[in-house]
Design goal:
Largest sheet: 8 strands, mixed
CATH architecture of the largest domain: Alpha-Beta Barrel
CATH superfamily of the largest domain: Metal-dependent hydrolases
Shape: globular
Number of domains: 2
Distance between the termini: 31 Å
Strand content: 15-25%
Length: about 450
């Protein structure tokens, strides 16, 4: 699928030469010090002392990336930009600003807005607003069911034709297995992904944090890990029932060791399943809720050290297909409510890279090539877009990272409208220096 970011971009008559950087392009097996030449919004050449006869020296802007990483533009396949309906929390404009500052050249908005993204007009609205802002490529998923009620399928065909890159009732799991089976079969007709918020409400109840010791001593309703695992197991059985076919199933924000076991077995059985993991499920545990700080209230809830270890092991083993932020901005007034009443969600888009470095590179779970793969080529494959690579002829979406830059997370500097972030004051390493979208610098530090 082509990029939806093309409407008003000016055509470049000059070029952009990024010199002396460590170029990491996992899709093409590249990890070396070399130059990247961009001409007319596309990657023209990668190599040492790169030149192009179409360019005059004075027409070519040069970026010296010595000591920096030059990678495909980062992709986040799970964000909430709250528009339409809750523009006081976030808009496509403010979310796009936050995205490019974080190095993301492509993002995928979730449809659980107000009103829900459930028809072709809604899809076209999101994409038009993204093009108008001219920061990052803005894609959207459509709802699986009307009103996210889990009863009647939304207009999936029309939304796919309008450019929806997948379907999800994120925030809710599709409870009726017959409805989910129809959704999987229908989406397969259009070769788009179905993403599931794996949560069986029968097990979840009114839980607000992980069910266990801490929920008991804090007097808060627990959300049993079995809620995630039961729905994932059920969906795997549905996938087995309709195999073979063009079905593509994606498990969102996996958080438990049991879910990882199910994913591992499904992949060993060659089922068409992918999954994602968030930074908070790699760095925070249920114990963080001990002070009733609602910045730690998220769904799925923060789990245990055992679960974190399982997630990291799965990442190291290649079982996890994408790292996604689940950026979920909320008003301060909402997060100041008591724990039971406050909304779920963490705003973490702008500090995501540093958090992943802290969670995965610093402890040696992954090196930079592995991390970049999970933030570029692999999420691009999940949503079926021609992104996540620096291949010659591809659209020039590039992120330049200073891997040694240390900084302190300061929520007051966020471009996002919301500040519901538990990482304020954390010291992290790895900072985005420039973000290039379609050959044009859209952010520089």
């Amino acid at each position: 699928m082509d990029s939806l970011f093309n409407g008003n971009c000016r055509t470049m008559n000059s070029g952009l030469l990024i010199k002396n950087g460590r170029v990491i392009d996992p899709a093409n097996g590249v990890d070396k010090k070399c130059d990247v030449l961009i001409v007319d919004e596309k990657i023209a050449e990668i190599g040492e002392k790169t030149q192009d006869p179409r360019l005059k020296t004075q027409d070519c802007k040069v970026i010296d990336a010595v000591g920096k990483l030059v990678v495909p533009g980062l992709i986040d396949i799970h964000v909430h930009f709250r528009e339409p309906g809750d523009e006081e929390e976030e808009t496509i404009a403010s979310g796009s600003e936050a995205a490019v500052a974080a190095g993301f050249t492509s993002v995928v908005c979730m449809p659980n807005t107000n009103p829900v993204i459930e028809n072709e007009t809604d899809v076209e609205y999101i994409h038009r607003k993204g093009r108008q802002r001219r920061k990052t490529h803005v894609y959207t998923m459509g709802a699986i069911t009307k009103g996210l009620q889990g009863v009647e399928l939304a207009e999936m065909g029309f939304m796919a034709d309008a450019g929806a890159i997948g379907f999800t009732d994120d925030g809710r799991g599709v409870q009726d297995p017959a409805v989910m089976l129809r959704a999987l079969k229908y989406a397969a007709m259009f070769d788009v992904v179905v993403a599931q918020h794996c949560q069986d409400d029968g097990f979840a109840g009114n839980g607000v944090m992980n069910s266990g010791y801490y929920s008991t001593i804090l007097g808060l309703p627990g959300l049993d890990p079995l809620a995630e695992e039961a729905m994932l197991w059920r969906d795997i059985q549905l996938i087995k029932k309709i195999r073979p076919g063009r079905i593509r199933y994606h498990a969102q924000h996996i958080s438990t060791a049991g879910a990882i076991d199910l994913i591992r077995a499904a992949k060993e059985d060659s089922l068409p399943i992918t999954c994602e993991v968030t930074p908070h499920h790699l760095l925070l545990t249920e114990e963080c809720c001990a002070e009733y700080d609602t910045n730690y209230k998220v769904n799925p809830p923060l789990r245990t050290e055992k679960d974190i270890e399982a997630l990291k092991r799965a990442i190291a083993d290649g079982l996890v297909d994408a790292l996604a932020t689940d950026h979920a901005p909320h008003l301060q007034s909402e997060k100041e409510l008591e724990f039971l009443a406050a909304p779920f969600g963490i705003a973490s888009l702008e500090c995501a890279l540093g958090l992943y470095v802290k969670a995965l590179i610093k402890p040696g779970v992954l090196g930079w090539p592995g991390l970049i793969s999970l933030m570029t080529e692999r999420p691009a494959k999940i949503i079926g877009v021609d992104k996540g690579t620096l291949g010659v002829g591809k659209q020039a979406d590039v992120t330049i990272i200073d891997p040694n830059a240390e900084y302190e997370i300061d929520v007051s500097t966020f471009r996002s409208k919301s500040r519901n972030c538990p990482y304020h004051g954390w010291k992290v390493k790895g900072k985005v220096e420039k973000t290039i979208v379609g050959g044009e610098i859209r952010y520089e530090q």
